[in-house]
Structure formats: structure tokens, C-alpha cells
């Protein structure tokens, strides 16, 4: 039997690229001694091919000018690789500026290295085993993709069947190349790492966690899990059209200014490329904008967008009229790169619509600042410098231009200042695009309301009509096209958002984001038991509308009084003291569990409470306090006024102060670990290492969903964020989730911490099983000397498992356990298990550190220790709402789920929500088993299950009613199982019986007994005719199709239903093909 090698994967990659139109050359053939010498060992570009491309794409240039342009490409050689890469990227995407003489005058002209509008005008070449020499180092990357002689993509491969050759090993190899042959990476757009099965792409500054998979080969449908990721990435990302589109529009260099404690300023640049969901969503949004604005529909950018219409075409937005000015809404879950998607969109729409004016609107000043910062750091992609309108006059001035410009403003500036109900016309141009961040908010409405007009003494002297900001925005910019971005779905009751922006353009939900590694799961922990509130206080808080704040001047006296009562309950002195004490203990345990890494945020209801909580915390931990902005472990981030009094005023922060604190929070090595906020930083602020959010403020709906997303950012080895509830927000969380599910989103934004504990216990059981015959309990009471001996004995035992193979299994299991433990702390069960986990980690450290001879051992995966928490069980992401109210549990029954005893127990169980969750989970497992056997029965039963659950989520059925529905479903499953026995059919035969008996008219015409006979003959006939490749080869499928049709005719199957039945039988055969082949 021939064993698969890395060379086989290389050959497969080359063949798949050739099928996309690439030419292929063997690396040694183009070296100086090869048959077609195109380069020296020191050259990384194919100079002759680059020169030919310049001449071909710029035919009006003289030979001298072409060579001058080539010289600019070859002479990029600063000591900073990122600076070199940026310089080349600008030459590639913006053109090379050279001076030419025309009619006696000297003028500038751009020379193009690549034709981005016509992919076929470029030469795509893949070369393997290219030897490169630089500074006495010699390296040979597996494959390089050259476009017009420029090495734009490096591919590093590993062998899928070699357990030591991992995709992370390929990543480390790329990093080694960057250090040892950096000149190759001057020209690198991005790199691809793969073992054939897994495949990811990333830029020169991306760490391993930021190398992302490409999940679709055609932009329309998501690839199956059974399709190798490398094949999907080649077809989806490396096809010439997408590859050129990605390089030109979807790579950004973000520069940020950083100031250290000594006041020394440095500029840090990070190169980012779009993930697949961003790429397709932006193209869909560009296409929708072209439709909505009804201009420039024939531009080259529009043609590319047309070919890349988004992962799942959203038919409602496509059905909108051309020229309706509603480009739609992009719903991408928080943390999945929404701000960057807005940058990519702006960069592309600027060229697609021939330099329109882009107005970016937020509804809060801090959001405006944050988003403006993101855009300002990406000037290279935008090809212009964004401007921020500080006031209405400046906004009017900026909009007076004929075209161009990226303008930032807040929606509040669209408020008439003369008391009228009409906002003045700012511009009637049609080449204006308005992008609204968090487009669902209530301010975007059209509706009118009457408000009091008061004189200087506060007396009501009349009434006037005011409208929602959407109306004023339309007054000001009547011909603009509107596009919305949101991290949370539009509520069903929200009629304003579709009215202003149109329907969804693209959806990227929580489940998908977590699966793709774009975000990490969020866990929920209630600490209510630690901090008591009276029943009366709880009722008041539940009724309270969190949209009122202590600054809202539109409130009535009654509303203000209610706010004050709630604030006094939440902010009572004893309660704040209790929270401070619990929070300090909890956060210290979190830091210990996360190796002293990561950050936390506390959300307080008012500035008074924020200041008081700070005082109580630093009273317990005085070493955390510092008056210096650049020092201290904890800070309060808020503004204040002189009237607030000295206790609050001392925490006032200016815009510049907040930037300093933001930089400190984002810096993993900075001692600032904890911030207290009220409203600031709850949307738009990203500190990726933040892993814990403490909520002590009434929050609902979008605001709650936005806030909890502060801890879902991907960061190094972080595998989850934790939301800690001091107020009882679980019901609000469930309510927020109900419209999330209704809108079609999958995934649970906050999983109960109980789930993390369950996973931890599972991992603990795995290790207990591995060490079943080794008693390590003595370790916990032994002396230090004896403990060291037990560690050595444990090491010896593990190395003896499965002839040495047990070591890798043990190391992997301990890593998984450590990850689950970090998420589960400080749950009491997690703390109880801490000594046992410490023992397993000690043994793991010994195995990693030394080999059995006592010398230093070399472990292939050097970062195993560092990557604690990275591979938490994917099963934690569910696609339904999880009840988080009850901590009581039900053990999985030993008896069958379908037994009447168990079903009765479920019906009578007092915790209905838990009974429902248990039934749903176990029923889904049972149905999944049947789905693997029968296409028809599996689909029918799953539809019944999802229908019942949906009714519960949409609040049509109560938990008790849906339990009754599920019990009926369980009894239906019993009937299905007994029918196969009654008909005396094997499981395979019954599967084919359901395929042909699905049609009622067939049952009436032929009868059950004849259909049974048909199923038996059909099973035998298919078993005798399936081959290994029948599902791939159309000729083999056609043969099976003919056999099935003939059999159906012979048994008198209704002719009008024959074609449908044939396809159902083929689908059934495909499902069972492996089993049928085994039984041959």
C-alpha cells in the first residue's frame, strides 16, 4: 500500500491550480543551471517576466521607462520588512509614478504591474521547490504563486497523515522564512499554510490565531465539512478573479501611534486581509449599492462584485428596485471585523462609483472617534484622508464639494437648531453614500411626536413636532444612498431600519463566527447569590427601562424618580461593598487561571456607583490604585462635570486621557487590568485580551448584546470570554436572544458556565480513564520528595501506554483540560478539581521537559504550554436558546430515551426548562442516528423537532406545551422503529422502503406488501452495482439511475412520481454507500 506524502499534496495543489488556468514550472528548471533559467538564487522576482508584463500592460511606454519602473520594484530595501511590504503593495495597487515627456512638457504617469480589471491579461504561474539564498541562508519554500513574475503568494504544505507534521508547523516555517529570506516577503500579499485537509491564509504580521480558513469555493454555498479545506481555499481564494480582487481591495495596513511610559512615540503597522465572510459581504454590499444608486453599473468593480455576490444571496435586497437609495443592511456579529468590513467597502465603493462622497454616521461621540481612528489608520486603502465634522457648520462645508471625501459625523448633528420640523438641504447630489454603524438603533426613525416648547423660565408656552433623525437625514441628503452595518439583528418590531436602509445584504451569525475562529464563545455566570437585592428592588429593576440615563433631559419627572430609585437600590453602600469584595476575589482567581494574562471590565449603572465601586475595590487592594494615568491596575473611564462633586470629578477623562487608557488596556503587558465604565467602551472598543465582563447595570436588547461582545475577541490562546451577572440579566439575555434566533441567527451569545464545567469534567474523566490502573491519589497528601517520585512514576506509566503512543494523547488531553478549567474558574466544582488538574499539569510539564533518559527532550509543538485554552470543545456552540435560569441538573438516563418511564419522568419534572433542554438534546441525538440511515425519516423527524423548538423560542408554546410535543415526537420515533420490525425489513431495506413509500399515491396504487418487495429487490440491486467511485463519476450514477427507474416501472410505480422517487433513492443510496460497499 503506497503511503501519502507531502509531495502528493504538492502535486494535487499544482493540478488544481492548473485547472484554474495557472501555468506550472519546476523550481530547479528556472535556476541558473536549469533548462529555462529565469532567476539567480538571490533573485526572488522573475525580472524578465515582470518587464514583459510592464511592456504588455503599458504599451505606450518606451523601453527606458519600462526599465525605470522595474527598477522601482527591485530597489525596495529598507531594514524594515513591513515598510518594504507596504511600499511594494502601493506600487502594485496604485501604480508606479514615473515622469514622461509629452509635447515638450514633463508630466507624471502611472505604470501598472498587473491588470486588475482583466484577470486574463495577466500570467499566473505556480512554481514548486524554489531555492532562495540570502545572507548565507538557503531556504526552499514548497510553492510560490507568481503573477506577472511577482511572488505574491507563498504556500507551505505539511503531510495530513503525519501526526507530527501539523499546520502550525507550516506556520512556524513561514515565520522562519520571513526572518531568513525576508526579500521574498517584500512582495508577499499573503501566505497559505496547509496539510491538505486544513488550510488557512494570513499576512506577514498575522499570528497563528489570525490565519483563517476559507469556507466556500464559490461564494454562494458553504463547503461541506467532508471537503478538504485546501481544495476549497484554492477554488475560492486562489482563482484569478478573487485573488486579484483580494489583493487590490481587501488588504489593509493599519498604523497606530503608541507612546510608552517615557513619552517615546513609535508607529506600529499591522497588515490585515479580509476573512471570507468579509470579502463576500463587501462585494454583495457594493453590488447592492450600485443597484440602489443606479449609477456606474458598468464599472469593472461592479463586474467583479457581480461575480462575487456574497456567501448567501439575500433575495429580499436583490428584489428591491434599482435606484431606491436603500443599499441594505450587513449583519455581522460583534467581534467578527465589522469596522474593517466598512473600511474595505469604502475602499472599493470609492473606485466603483467614481469617487463618491462617503458619510459615515454613528450615534455616539466615542463610537465616532473609534471608527474614525480605524479609517484613519487605513488611508492607503481609502486613497484619501478621512475628515471628522466637529459641528454642523463643518459638516455643511465638507459636503459642498462636487465629489470625493470620507466624512465622519454623529447622527445628532442632523437635528434642526431653529426649532423647525425640516432640516435644511445640505446636498442634493446623488453620488453620496451614507454608511450607518449600528443601523438598528431607535434614532433612525421617521415617526413624529409632539414636545413641549418652554420659555426661559421653564413654563410651557406651546407644542412643536419633532421627527426621528432618519427624516432629517433625508431632508439634508435627499438623493444619497444608505447602507447599514449592525452587529445584532433587526428586531421584528423595528420598521424603521428596513424603511431607511432596505433588507439584509449579508448575514454572519455567532455560530459561524465561533466555528470559523473569528470570535470566541462567551460564557455566562450568575453571581446573584453573592449579592442580595430585595424582592421589591428586583421587581423595580425588572420593570426599569434601561434606555433612560441620568443625563437624559427628555425624561418626565416620574421617569427620573424611577431611575433614581433603581440607582439607589443598585448603588446602596452595603451592596457596593459586597460586590467589591466578591469581584476582587473572582477577578484574582480569573487571573490565576489565565496565567496572569487578560483584562476585565466592570459596567456600572451611574457615575456615582462607578466612583464608589472604585473606592471600595482600592480599599481592599490599595496597591491597585495610582493617581498617575500611566500607572495603576484599575481605572474608571468616564466624563464628569463640575456639578458632580469632587468624588466623581476626579475620575473625569478627556479624549486624550481615554486614548492613553485604551492603549494601556490593549497592551497585554501593561499592568492596567480592570476598568470601570458606565456607557463608554461598551460598543466599538476592542481590547482582544479582555476575558471577563462584570455587569451591574440594567441592560436589554442590542445594548446588552453589544456589551457582552467586549469579551468575544480572538486573542492568542484565549478560548472564551466570561460574562458575570450581578443583577439578574438572564431573562433580558434570553429576550435579546429570542429576536436573534427569529432573525435567522444561529449560536448562543452567552453559554452558561455550567457548560464549561461539564466540559472540564469530561476532560477529567478522559485522563482518569488513561490512568485507570495507576493510583495517583497519594500525590495530594505526600511530602515534596514523594510527590517528585510519583511524577516520575506517572511519566513512566504514560510512556508505557500503547507502546509510547499514549504520551501524545496524554499531552493533548491535559491541554484540553487546562483550557476548560480556565473557562470554568472560579466555579466551585472547578476549584474543587484544581489539585487534580495541577497534578496532571505537573506530569505534562515533566513529559514536555525531559525524555526518559533524563536529557532535554525536543517536543515538536513548542507552543503547547502557551496555547492553554485554545481548542475548547466546539460542541459548546448550540444553535438554539439555552435556559440559564436554573442551576439544577438532570443526569442522562441509562434507560432508553424512548421508554415510557423516562418520558413520564420528563413530563412531571418540576424544572420545565431543564426537562426541555434534556429532551431536546437526547431527541436530537436519536434523530441524528436515524438521519445517517434514512434520508426521508431523518428529515421528517428533524423538521418536527425544529418546528416544536422554534414555536417555543417564538413564545407560541410554553415550556410545558413543547415538552408534550416532544413526547409525541418520541412516540412517533417508537412507531418508526416498530414499523421496520412489523414489515420484517432490515435497517437498509427499511431506509429504501421509506424512500419509495413516501408518495401516498404509490401506497394506494401498489400497496404496502408490493412496496416492501420493491424495497428488498432495490436494496439488493443497488448493493450489487455500487462501486467505490459511483458518487463521483456521472456515468456510474447514470447506470444506477437507469436500474432504479426500470425497477420502479416493473413494480407499477406511478410514472408522474418516478423521477422524484429515483432521485430520493439515489440520495438514500449515497447516504448508505459506505455500508453497502462493506457488506459486498
Q: Rough shape?
A: globular
In total, how many beta strands? 28
Specify the number of helices. 39
Helix content: 40-55%
What would you call the quaternary organization? single chain
**Residue runs with pLDDT of under 50 for 5 or more positions:** 309-313, 545-555, 850-898
List its traits.
alpha/beta; single chain; seven-stranded parallel beta sheet
Question: How would you summarize what this structure contains?
Answer:
The chain is an alpha/beta fold.
How would you describe the overall organization of this protein?
This protein has 1080 residues and is of the alpha/beta class. 46% of the residues lie in helices and 14% in strands. It contains 39 helices and 28 strands. It has a seven-stranded parallel sheet. About 6% of the residues have low confidence.
Write the layout of secondary structure elements.
Elements: H1 6-19, E1 23-26, H2 47-57, H3 63-74, H4 81-94, E2 96-102, E3 105-111, E4 124-128, E5 132-134, E6 137-139, E7 143-147, E8 150-157, H5 167-180, H6 182-185, E9 190-194, E10 199-202, H7 229-236, H8 240-249, E11 251-259, E12 265-273, H9 276-293, H10 300-307, H11 315-318, E13 326-332, H12 338-352, E14 357-362, H13 365-376, H14 379-382, E15 387-388, H15 392-398, E16 406-410, E17 432-437, E18 448-454, E19 460-467, H16 469-476, E20 481-486, H17 496-501, E21 504-508, H18 510-516, E22 522-526, H19 535-543, H20 557-570, H21 573-593, E23 599-604, H22 607-620, E24 634-637, H23 646-649, H24 655-666, E25 674-677, E26 690-696, H25 701-708, E27 721-725, H26 730-742, E28 751-752, H27 753-770, H28 784-799, H29 806-824, H30 828-849, H31 900-908, H32 912-931, H33 935-953, H34 959-982, H35 987-997, H36 1000-1006, H37 1008-1025, H38 1034-1050, H39 1055-1078
Parallel strand pairs: 1-4, 8-9, 13-20, 13-21, 14-16, 14-17, 15-16, 17-20, 22-27, 22-28, 23-25, 23-26, 24-25, 26-27
Antiparallel strand pairs: 2-3, 4-7, 5-6, 7-8, 9-10, 11-12, 18-19
Helix pairs in contact: 2-3, 9-10, 9-12, 21-22, 25-26, 27-29, 27-30, 28-30, 29-30, 32-33, 32-34, 33-34, 35-37, 35-39, 36-37, 37-38, 38-39
